[in-house]
Amino acid sequence: SQKIEQNSEALNIQEGKTATLTCNYTNYSPAYLQWYRQDPGRGPVFLLLIRENEKEKRKERLKVTFDTTLKQSLFHITASQPADSATYLCALVSLSGGGADGLTFGKGTHLIIQP
Amino acid sequence: DAGITQSPRHKVTETGTPVTLRCHQTENHRYMYWYRQDPGHGLRLIHYSYGVKDTDKGEVSDGYSVSRSKTEDFLLTLESATSSQTSVYFCAISDPGRQGSYEQYFGPGTRLTVT
Question: Do A41 and B35 lie within an 8 Å CB cutoff?
């Protein structure tokens, strides 16, 4: 069965360092991989998308890599700040249903940036 | 929250009663989705719609029905609520034809408690 794994334990990072979050998947051939941020009591917010033929994507302090051979994506936040503390969700999109049949989410990694 | 509202935001109901949750969007996006989020499971797709009166089942559709009579409204109905349906429900919208990348925009969520 399809499976998406993210670090289940909270990740504690010191302010100013780079935070790296991992998303691994099995039995899946995603066309796109997305990362979302979720704050307590709020809905997820889209951050970045990377396509299967792209190796890396950047947006300000965020960087995502996508290795379809390893079936893994890494999400980096450089120069981390306490305001970056949140739960980060990885989500996959296949195009088998024309892309309309929703996202498959990982359970998320809780990131804590300590001052 | 990208022009998406959900109502009610909180609801407590008794086992066996019908419940309807409403999602309203002002973005004119074609696709709408209902997810539930539970500890240990992450976000899971319940039903989705790819146009007015066009809906399909997601991963966890048992016990739920949906309707979409207008582009802007997507209703989720629990015909006879059970305690296992206690959860946080999120609506999301997407328009791949316009965006070309399948990112989704989420509403603020509805916290439903079935006693």
Answer: no
pLDDT at A56 over 80: yes
Contact A43 B43 (CB under 8 A): no
CB B90 within 8 A of CB B78: no
* Strand order through the sheet with B4-7: B4-7, B19-25, B73-78, B64-70
Chain A environment of B50 (Cβ under 8 Å): 100
Residue A62 to residue B90: CA distance in whole angstroms: 25
CB-based contact B78:B64 (threshold 8 Å): yes
The answer to whether the CB of A48 falls within 8 A of the CB of A34 is yes
Tell me the two tokens of residue A37: 């941020």
Nearest to B34 by CA among B100, B85, B82: B85
**Across the interface, do B105 and A106 touch by the CB < 8 Å criterion?**
no
Digit-coded pLDDT (tens) for B33-62: 999 999 888 899 999 998 999 999 998 999
Residue A12 C-beta-side C-alpha neighbours within 13 Å: 2
**Could you give the C-alpha distances from A76 to A21, A25, A115, B74, B108, in angstroms and in order?**
6, 18, 18, 35, 26
